[in-house]
């Protein structure tokens, strides 16, 4: 019986830098992102009825809520690549994601109530959609952009945080000569 040579080292694992693996991951992200956007879109169109928007304008609500999630997350990634911190933008993105999630949950509760296990499952799944939009956009950005070399990133950080010391005048001290206590 012939001996089988087992793979060892880098050949024993999936190569994450293989272009086929990269493309497979990107396709999975885009499919998941599309499904999450479609799910959330449907819930937000229903919420648009509550806004008393005419049927031909109900598409505005999902555009106003979910499209900025994708755009702002991508913009945040671009700014981060430039070494610009965006904590305020992150707070806004999380707030919009939370709002969209609650709106999707409210839509499902309004339609099916909370009286069955199926309706609770639907509520949770629909509320998950905006979080998937945020996560998939963030992962897509990280995957399709080159990492910043640590030396360049450190130099950028030093440039943005290093400031020249400002000379301060010496404090004025009153002359205490000749004063008896």
Structural class: mainly alpha
User: Number of helical runs?
Assistant: 5
Order of helices and strands: HHHHH
Number of domains: 1
What's the Cα radius of gyration? 27 Å
Instruction: Give the CA-based shape.
Output: flat
What fraction strand?
A: under 5%
Overall mean pLDDT: 84
Number of strands: 0
Q: Name the quaternary structure.
A: single chain
C-alpha termini separation: 107 Å
Q: Main sheet?
A: none
What would you note in describing this structure?
This protein has one domain (18-148). The chain is 66% helix and 0% strand. The protein contains five helices and no strands. The chain is an all-alpha fold and 181 residues long.
Describe the structure concisely.
The protein has 181 residues and is mostly helical. It has one domain (18-148).
Write the layout of secondary structure elements.
Layout: H1 19-50, H2 60-81, H3 87-112, H4 117-144, H5 150-161
Helix pairs in contact: 1-2, 1-3, 1-4, 2-3, 2-4, 3-4
């Amino acid at each position: 019986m012939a001996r089988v040579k087992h793979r060892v080292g880098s050949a024993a694992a999936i190569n994450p830098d293989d272009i086929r693996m990269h493309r497979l991951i990107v396709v999975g992200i885009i499919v998941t992102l599309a499904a999450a956007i479609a799910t959330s879109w449907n819930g937000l169109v229903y919420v648009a009825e509550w806004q008393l928007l005419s049927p031909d304008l109900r598409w505005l609500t999902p555009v106003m809520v979910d499209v900025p999630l994708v755009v702002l997350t991508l913009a945040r990634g671009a700014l981060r690549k430039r070494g610009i911190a965006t904590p305020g933008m992150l707070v806004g993105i999380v707030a919009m994601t939370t709002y969209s999630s609650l709106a999707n949950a409210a839509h499902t509760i309004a339609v099916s109530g909370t009286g069955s296990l199926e309706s609770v499952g639907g509520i949770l799944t629909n509320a998950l959609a905006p979080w998937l939009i945020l996560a998939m956009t963030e992962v897509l950005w990280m995957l399709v952009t080159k990492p910043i070399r640590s030396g360049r990133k450190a130099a950028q950080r030093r440039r943005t945080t290093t400031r020249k010391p400002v000379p301060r005048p010496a404090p004025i001290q009153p002359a205490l000569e000749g004063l008896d206590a």
